[in-house]
Amino acid sequence: MSDNLLEIRNLDVRFKGARNVHAINDLSLELKHGETLALLGESGSGKSVTLKTLLRLLPEKRTDLGGSIDFDGTDIMTLSGKRLRSYRGGDVSMVFQDPGLALDPVYTIGQQIAETVMRHKGVSREDALDVALDMLHRVRIPSAERRMKNYPHELSGGMRQRVMIALALACRPRLLLADEPTTALDATVQIQILLLLRELQKEFGMGVIFVTHDIGVAVEISERIAVMYAGQIIEEGTTREVIRNPQHPYTQGLLAANLHDVARGTRLDAIPGSPPALETRPDACPFAPRCPLMVDACRQALPPVQRPGPRRRVACLRAGEAIPA
Amino acid sequence: MAGCDDVLSYFLRRLILVLPVAFGVSVVCFMLVQIAPGDPLTAIMPVDATAEQQAAMRAAYGLDKPLPVQYLIWIANLLQGEMGRSIASGRPVAGEVFGAVSNSLLLAGAAAVIAFPIGTFLGFLAGYFRDTILDRFITALSITGVSVPNYWLGIVLVIIFSVNLGWLPSMGAGPGGSQDWHWDWAHIRHLVLPAVTLAVVPIGIVARTVRALAGDILSMDFVQALYAKGLSRGDVLRHVARNAAATALSVMGLQLGYLLGGSILIETVFNWPGSGFLLSNAIFQRDLPLLQGTILILAMFFVGMNLIVDVAQAAIDPRIKRT
Question: How far apart are CA A51 and CA A11, in angstroms?
């Protein structure tokens, strides 16, 4: 047994259809027990697809999967039927981006949490409802007894996201997947939810993969950061390492494009261009067309993965070089 | 919260809203007689009746009083179950309408019992297997069902099952033109063909509705979230069904209303002694009291059906505001 909770090896995800999309290309990632990792990237970089693959939620007929996913000794790629169901929601659960869309509108909150508990723990309805109530207390929902009988549309966005979190944690999963859980919320509510997630992570001790496009959120919540671009992880390290010493030109660009420490009246340093469409599998550095440090070699082959430290990696030929201002 | 008190008070509020509708319907029914061309008396009076005889008859039927007074008398009688006498048969309208409407209810109920489960099942299948061959097949089937004129289908079924195969009777509600319904095989045999014919359109409509509902709901985010929390396909389908129930039920309720009032052609084809049959006879015989009574009762059924659908919908779907 390794101390890794999750090991993703050479994951490929390709969507078939009128247009093929190579959403994930040769992605490898490790997560230790109780570790919090932020998966950082812009829209379309494959963050959400990675999470959905982890729960095997992608439509099977339209998806080609490659590589392997090992969760605490279990091969996720071959799970099916009853074992897949007990893995989903029992071992690994997910908090979705928009809690207004992810909760069933015609069941009460209590019923929805209790249903999960009953399926996974095989307890009676009454016991499951007790667990649900306890969870609502733990996510600090005021007057939880009354809220149990509310429907999702009767709650505010922040309350709904707390419910979603309560639901995800009700069966004490060992891994929590959070898919931009604060994006759909007001700024003040975002911070409350982040703090709550951080506290609950300490309390429950589960591993967390937190998908976000917001560097500020990633810094707030995570111990480690993996930066995604075009379906690959292009840089990984501890949060401190990545923020203090970004090695990949894309990461440097992301940090430079951040609002903090920018003098009034100056233009933000946005990264020019847009991410590739991924209709074909990248055979060179996908960031090259936008990269200020691009050399000819970048367009000819996939960049080498450099490992400047333990559990630190950068997929770039010119890793660590500063972008000329 | 889906408390019983909530639903009850919603029901009472809806009931109050129904009263003006019922009043409007009754006024329209009453005015029908006034608007209709021709004098109802000329139909029953001898051609050579004198002016005095006509005036006496007019007074006997209360037709000489002002309209609002006539209306009030009519309503007062209605509330006592007195709907006048049929001009053609001389029998009380209430009895005629009651017998016909209960026959129609029987036919509509039988058609609904056939149509709603089949339509729901087909629609669910098509919605779940959307854009597959099965979906296209069911869609084609339901469009055909909605489009085929059902009186024509009725005649075709009669030719096949009554004339050629001789399995089922083609006419009436019971052996030997019996008007009284009994739950025995001799009577049920008479119900089969008209009920099946009548069921074809609602099968198509319910299937189309449920297909669209199931398809939409299955593509919503919360379905993926349900799978993510480890529910089985059966559990997820139960959630989908509950989400679809309110809308599906309202469509079914309205269909039941149409089945009741809209079966004139089918009742005529099969000689079924129901309200549609009665209605068409009343029209051809210019039997205005009978026409009035039948339309009024059918309209009230429709209003009542809508009320039940509204309340049932609110009881099932918490998002419908019960205020």
Answer: 12
Pairing of the two strands A21-32 and A175-179: unpaired
For residues B292 and B10, what is the distance between their CA atoms, to the nearest angstrom? 31
Q: Report the amino acid identity of residue A247.
A: Q
Q: Which of B224, B230, B316 sits opposite A89 (nearest CB)?
A: B230
d(CA B216, CA B231): 19
Backbone angles phi, psi at A239, to 5 degrees: -55, -40
Residue B233 distance to chain A (closest CA, Å): 10
Q: How many residues does chain A have?
A: 325
Q: Which residue has the higher pLDDT, B320 or B2?
A: B320
Q: At what angle do helices B4-35 and B288-316 cross, to 10 degrees?
A: 160
Write the single-letter amino acid at B52: E
Which residues from B are below 8 Å from A88, CB to CB?
227-230
**Cβ of A89 and B239 within 8 Å?**
no
User: How many Å separate Cα B247 from the centre of its chain?
Assistant: 18
Model confidence band, residue B1 (pLDDT cutoffs 50, 70, 90):
very low
Residue A91, min C-alpha distance to chain B (Å): 10
Residues from A contacting B (CB-CB < 8 Å) are 52, 55, 57, 85-90, 93-94, 96, 98, 101-108, 115-116, 119-120, 149-151, 153, 167-168
Determine whether the interchain pair B222/A101 forms a contact, defined as Cβ–Cβ distance below 8 Å: yes
Contacts of A107 in chain B (CB under 8 A): 239, 242
Q: How does pLDDT run across A108-128, given as a tens digit for each residue?
A: 999 999 999 998 988 899 999
Positive or negative torsion for Cα B115, B121, B122, B123: positive
DSSP string, A162-204: HHHHHHHHTT--SEEEEESTTTTS-HHHHHHHHHHHHHHHHHH
List pLDDT tens digits, range B258-314.
888 767 788 888 888 888 888 888 888 777 778 888 888 888 888 888 888 888 888
Phi, psi values for residue A158, rounded to 5°: -65, -40
Distance of alpha carbon A171 from alpha carbon A122, whole angstroms: 11
To the nearest whole angstrom, how far is the Cα of A15 from the nearest Cα of chain B? 17
In which order are the strands placed within the sheet that holds A207-212?
Answer: A92-95, A175-179, A207-212, A36-40, A224-229, A232-238, A312-315, A305-309
